[in-house]
Amino acid sequence: MDDTKDAARDAARAGGSGRRGPVVAALMLAMALAALDSTIVSTAVPQIVGDLGGFSVFSWLFSGYLLAVTVTLPVYGRLSDTFGRKPVLVAGAALFLLGSLLCALAWNMAALIAFRVVQGLGGGALQGTVQTLAADLYPLKDRPKIQARLSTVWAVSAVAGPALGGLLASYADWRWIFLVNLPVGAVALWLVVRHLHEPRRASEGTRARTDWAGALTVFACGGVLLTALVQGGVAWPWWSAPSLTLFGTGLVLLAAVVAVERRAADPIMPGWVWRRRTIAAVNLALGALGLLMVAPTVFLPTYAQSVLGLAPVAAGFVLSVWTLSWPVSAALSQHAYRRIGFRDTALLGIGTAALILFAFPFLPYPGAAWQPALLMLLLGGALGLFQLPLIVGVQSTVGWAERGTATASVLFCRQSGQTAGAAVFGAIANGVLAARLGGASDLDSVTRALDAGTEAGTEAGAGAGTGVAAGAGVADEAVRRAVAEAVHAVYLGAAGAAALAFLVLLILAPRKFPVLTD
């Protein structure tokens, strides 16, 4: 244990005061690569599909990347504890940049999806290792500073990504969306190679063999189960043969993971991640966070456009306001958790978030744009109080040799929660729509029909008189109310997820986290 504490202190001094600034800049640039990815690509989908075709499978541009990031997080976390953060970060960044270059050279949609998976394989290293290095570089009292900077990177990326992607797709070429990663990533790589110097650890000579069998089974199990969640109810019905086959295969692979990891001397997914109350409780709580985040990120833009009648840019602003309050709240959370502790600060944040999410269905119909925007501003502040204290708290309960694994486990659970949330809340929304409108209605087809019907109703009203226009307006109004009720049901589900996170922390997490001395 003394060696572990010494290694943690050495790692925190890895560059000294003169080198820590360039390393932090590299971490922020690396995080920006991962944060910008989805938002910058989403705005260029029409241009990509117009050039390459493949409209029926374009959603895999995002699903493939997300799957690769999620299933590699625990693998990279364990590798960073075994070989050090620097080689894992350098290898991950290089793989991400290679994937970016290949995406820019893609000749059809299948190739682009495959290269997006390559990007995701590198993206998993970026997300996990950057968060771990942030804890290595700073002692506990200073960690909120670097975490607030990383949160700011995510906030700026959420706002700037769609605008940058739209500009590049409209005035240059969609391939530049991937090419812009190359100079940014090259600078980050150079700063890491030049300025990050990790000390040699005393246990390096007796390092255990890497659990490659465990890494392969974890990757396969996560990939199969997440594919079942992502595609279920979209590419095929939930109770169809493909869904049942994938879930059955995933359960078999899960049993294989347990068997392989129990026999491994140095497992990729060590049992202590779930045997320690603090880490297990935070894993479950952040899984619930990933679940509830789906409600605003996926469904609020649809609500803003279909129910409130906002343009896409204005709808994006309604969502993006939470990225303004989240990093501010995260930066200020240290004043709370130093007084009342990590758990109670997180309880305050998630309890407030549950009330805000529960209030959404009670907004007036159709309402004004400022009303959901205000709720999102408050929600961002509440979640900033929730997430950051838990991540900092978990990282502070482990030494250097376990920090990568612990950090990756909480990020993996959050990402898995988002994937599950998209499937669960999508099913809830579609079920409400089917009940209100009849048939096999789903949110995507209904909102597309609403847009088309509005345009057709306007043209018909101009050509055939107000009677037709009024009839179209009545139909549109019924659909809008159905969409509003579907999104309200999703927000109630998100409030339930927040309440679940509250109970998990209250019951399972210790009131005082067992923090190690820096």
Q: Low-confidence stretches at least 5 residues in length (pLDDT < 50)?
A: 1-18, 202-206, 454-472
Range of helix content: over 70%
Number of helices: 20
Gyration radius, rounded: 23 Å
* Average pLDDT: 80
Order of helices and strands: HHHHHHHHHHHHHHHHHHHH
Structural class: mainly alpha
Distance between the termini: 13 Å
Apparent shape: globular
The counted number of beta strands is 0
Q: Indicate the proportion of strand residues.
A: under 5%
Largest sheet: none
Précis, in short:
The protein is mainly alpha-helical and 518 residues long. Helices cover 81% and strands 0% of the residues.
Topology:
Layout: H1 2-12, H2 16-42, H3 45-52, H4 60-83, H5 85-104, H6 109-137, H7 143-171, H8 176-179, H9 181-195, H10 212-231, H11 241-263, H12 272-275, H13 277-306, H14 312-320, H15 322-340, H16 342-359, H17 370-395, H18 400-437, H19 443-464, H20 466-508
Walkthrough of the structure:
Helix 2 packs antiparallel against helix 9 (181-195), helix 13 packs antiparallel against helix 17 and helix 19 runs antiparallel to helix 20 (466-508). The protein is built from 20 helices and no strands. The two termini are 13 Å apart. By secondary structure, it is mostly helical. The longest helix is centred in the C-terminal third of the chain and has 43 residues, at 466-508. It is globular. The chain has helices at residues 2-12, 16-42, 45-52, 60-83, 85-104, 109-137, 143-171, 176-179, 181-195, 212-231, 241-263, 272-275, 277-306, 312-320, 322-340, 342-359, 370-395, 400-437, 443-464, 466-508.
